[in-house]
Amino acid sequence: MRYAMAMDTKKCVGCGDCVVACQTENNVPLGYARDWIVEKVEGTYPSLNLELRSERCNHCENTPCVRTCPTGASHVIEGGIVKVTHDECIGCGACIQACPYEARYFHPDGYVDKCTFCDHRTSKGQDTACVAVCPTHSLTFGDLDDENSPISKLLRNRKWKTLAPEAGTKPNVYFLI
Amino acid sequence: MKTRRDFIKISALAAGGLAVLKPALSFSSGFFPDEEVPLDESEAQRTPTICEVCFWNCAAFAYKDRKGKVQKIIGNDIDLHSKGRLCPRGTGGPGMLYDKDRLKKPLLRVGKPGNQKFKEVSWEEALDFVAKKTREVGEKYGYESIALLDHGTTAHHFEHLFKSFGSDNTAEPAIAQCLGAREAGFINTYGAGIGSPEPTDLRNAKCLVLIGSHIGENMHNGIVQDMSTGLDRGMTVITVDPRFSTAASKSKFWLPIKPSTDIALLLAWMHVLIYEDLYDKDYIEQYAYGFDELKAHVRPFTPEWAYTKTDIPPQDIRKTAYEMAKAAPSVVIHPGRHTAWYGDDTQRTRAIAILNALLGAWGKKGGYYFPEKIRIPRFPHPKYPEPEWTWKDITKDKYKGAFTGVTNILIDASLPDTKLKHKIKAWYVVATNLIQSIPDQEKTKKALQNMEFVVVVDTMPTEITGYADVVLPECTYLERYDYLRTTRHKIPQVALRMPAVEPMYDTKPGWWISREIGLRLGLDKYFPWKDIEEVLDWQLKQVGSSLEEMKKVGVKSFEREEPLYLEDGEDYFFNTNTGKIELYSTDLDAMGYDPMPVYREHPQPEDGFYRLIYGRVPMHTFGRTINNPLLNELRDENHLWVNPKIAKLLDLKTGQEVWLRNQDGVVSTFPVKVRITERIRFDSVYLPHGFGQKNKKMGRAYGRGAADSEMITRVEIDDVTGGTGMRGNFVEILVEKPQKEEAES
Fold first, then answer.
1. Looking at the domain covering B1-30+101-165+379-474+509-527, what would its CATH class be?
2. Is B225 an 8 Å CB contact of chain A?
3. Contact B636/A at CB under 8 A
């Protein structure tokens, strides 16, 4: 089992529904976010390119955040999902420094928080809250070890990229381009 | 200045002098501070609702946590509006319900001019007052002199009340300021309007043409979803927009048009289709009237001619016309939704309608389908009284193509020096912030001062509430029943909204408010029911369902009666004078308007001025959601989009605060931050709509960004419908804070 997400930049309109759905699903405090929208514009008028992306923790195969965690609060669970055990986190922030994607934040209750790939949902076979809500169907969650899963097919048939590949983290969030 | 109606900041009273907190501090931890574990939908209690965060009205279920709080709202899978997925605003619905800045108690204006304030009163007192003033004005000037300016689902309850006491002077900003011209354009071509949701068959279209329509930034849910599936199928998108919109970025062709020249482009496309023999000859021969006239009319409008008007190279005009012809009839030239632009808006949407006809798209798979809805009888009540005069009597001699009340005409009739033969003396304003939703704020305020009586019904303390004599706080859509939604779509559907929770604070549903006023006016016979549940159950039983069933399913589908599309060669009668699609409009001709669209030059900005283009952001519905804590998180202010060339000229930096001054010298109340971007033309600036709110009680929205509506003081009236074209305003960018003459808040 190797969980991953594909994010179709060709369809995303940057509406932020994924952000709101995560907020109500995971009770993320106002002023913080586990996922967010990035807008990138290239070119000069009128030869322009716009890329819209919904970003979150990349649930990397090679995890600098887990390596730097002094207490073991940051860890990897079944399917490669990177999680933080809130009770064990001392809020030192080493993981925040180590993450090249700025995917983690200090929760006001004193621990580090981040995307969990909604493991409370995905372990029951449901989609993550962001995938389930996306009105443009830009997000796909699934198992890369299953070659017939929709995400495996997408990654075979479409061009894609990952973020900051030079960091060597082997991210599991793929951006279809 | 002493006025009949001082603007009253609701903050001064209801909050009891409480300082407005920063939003993030209003909630100690998560948005739902008591919740520890995520809510599992399969175990949670759910109630059907219909989203009211925008007019798309998606059907959904509200899910409650163990403490009975609405934590999630998720689309109803069988609903055709949402297809099981809400947009960010619908998903953020709990933020509207739990917004602490909501209106909480009925408020009554007390005191003398210059020293007025609101007093919290009981519903009894507020409703008695409304009924007393309504009767006073009604008996003195006739009930016709009371106007209803409204929006959304609550409007239906008050329209019934108005008809019951004998006024048909109702108008929605959504018509004159938005889609009126579009409806008139299509009615005068096909004998049928577009309606909502738009019956565009994007699931099957091969080509979609957007003219200034920014799908994806306007989150018209079903259409956004359909466009996305189209992109998956390889549908060609052609976007015409002076701005590199989100939709433009998804398009195979982006035509960066010079603003105000759209009709020139549309005529050139017609020219190419006709003179290069690319139009659907069989379709036109069978269904259309006036082809020869149209052919002669568009003869001079070559792509080369259009290039001189639009800045779009002739080869691009041809290439895109070929794309449309190749896809025909599975092609949609989208009619748009906000169509009040330059004052020739019915003619522009007529041109769009004609182009669709040349491509044979109307009534065809992948073009426009025939929507169907189920007729639900009204709960029986006696015939309404016949008003002595209606909106038609003050509108029709000037705007012959108007088909409903026109907001700005009713406002004209409300001015002290009105030249109109009938006068408006009191307003009911229901669920619309007229200060932002109608252009020319000064005129609206002047009319407000002239009213004998103004009542506002709303959920939030928007700017218009500050001008009310009495404010009636409605509960949100998650706390109330409303009339059924009867969907006009591919399959007829009925959907139910019911309360997920009891009304919070001292708020009441619109149906209850209108009925209580009606009873106080002695109109009992028009409200021959105990509560709305009785009405809904009776109505549902007429179509073989019941309130009990609908409470479980939320949405129910019915069989279609007529085919979805035209068969090839099928006989079809269009509801026009000729029974055909009128390329040449006999009605417009008879009324003295151009029977075929004509391109006319519009004013261009002078040196130092830029055309103000406005639009939407996907996470907000106009100004109505800016204060929603969940959505405010996503976008809490707007930015002024400025082309880098202009930024260099004026030495502007991204993030710098500037003020705007328009051609009439009106200066923006608040500054707005600059966003330097290649995505906008050099002759225009772009400002997302709904920001720059002036009521301090809207704690998160107050003073954040600038209001485009404040800058819209020049209005180009659509001569056919009376719609208010708002895209002819030009602004200068001021880097220094101007001296304020009169601050309002």
1. alpha beta
2. yes
3. no
- Beta-strand ranges (E) seen in B156-205 are 170-171
Whether B92 sits inside 8 A of A33 (CB atoms) is no
Average pLDDT (A66-86) is 95
Nearest residue on chain A to B89, alpha-carbon basis = A17
pLDDT beyond 70 at B31: no
- Pick from B306, B177, B290, B312: which is nearest to B718 by CA? B177
Residues 48-77 of A with CB under 8 A from B: 48-50, 52
B74–A contact, CB cutoff 8 A: yes
Confidence at residue B23, expressed as pLDDT on a 0 to 100 scale = 36
Q: Is B496 exposed, middle or buried, given 0-12, 13-18 or 19+ CB atoms closer than 10 A?
A: buried
Residue A9, domain extent: 3-176
Cβ–Cβ under 8 Å, residues B353 and B189: yes
Tokens of B482: 């409303």
Residues 6+ apart with CB under 8 A from B151: B55, B172, B173, B174, B430, B431, B432, B437
Query: B139: pLDDT confidence band, cut at 50, 70 and 90?
Result: very high
Please name the residue of chain A whose CA is at the shortest distance from the CA of residue B256. Answer: A46
Inter-chain touch A17–B74, beta carbons under 8 Å: no
To the nearest whole angstrom, how far is the Cα of A121 from the nearest Cα of chain B?
A: 8
Whether the Cβ atoms of residue B629 and residue B710 lie closer than 8 Å to each other: no
Q: Is B224 in contact with A23 (Cβ distance < 8 A)?
A: no
The ipTM, to two decimals, is 0.95
Give residue B29's pLDDT band: very low, low, confident or very high (50, 70, 90).
low
Q: Is A11 on the interface with B (CB under 8 A)?
A: yes
Q: What is the pLDDT of residues B160-195, one digit of tens each?
A: 999 999 999 999 888 888 899 999 999 999 999 999
Q: How far apart are CA B427 and CA B145, in angstroms?
A: 9
Q: How many angstroms away from the CA of A115 is the closest CA of chain B? A: 13
Per-residue pLDDT at B525 exceeds 80: yes
Task: Find chain B residues with C-beta within 8 A of A132's C-beta.
Answer: 74, 85
Which of A10, A13, A109 is facing B618, going by the closest CB pair? A13
Q: Give dist(CA A40, CA A163) in Å, integer.
A: 13
Task: Decide if pLDDT at B462 tops 70.
Answer: yes
Work out the average pLDDT over B473-494.
Answer: 96
Percent of chain B residues topping a pLDDT of 90: 83
**pLDDT tens-digit profile of B637-667?**
999 999 999 999 999 999 999 999 999 999 9
| Residue of chain B whose Cα is closest to the Cα of A49 | B249
Look at the block and give the residue holding tokens 């949100």.
Answer: B476
Is residue B430 within 8 A of residue B151, CB to CB? The reply is yes
* Distance of alpha carbon B211 from alpha carbon B228, whole angstroms: 18
Dist CA B619 CA B347 (whole Å): 32
Beta bridge partners of A7: A139, A175
Q: Which residue(s) pair with B426 in the sheet?
A: B146, B453
Domain spanning B201-367: CATH superfamily: Dimethylsulfoxide Reductase, domain 2 (3.40.228.10)
CB interface of A with B, residues 120-139, below 8 Å: 120-121, 132-138
2.40.40.20, 3.20.20.70, 2.60.40.420, 2.60.40.10: CATH of B610-734? 2.40.40.20
User: What is the bridge-based pairing of β-strands B470-473 and B107-112?
Assistant: antiparallel
The answer to whether the Cβ–Cβ distance between B249 and A15 falls below 8 Å is no
- B722, B406 Cβ separation under 8 angstroms: yes
Provide the domain count of chain A. 1
Disruptive mutation site among B228, B232, B311, B700 for chain A (greatest number of A CBs within 10 Å): B228
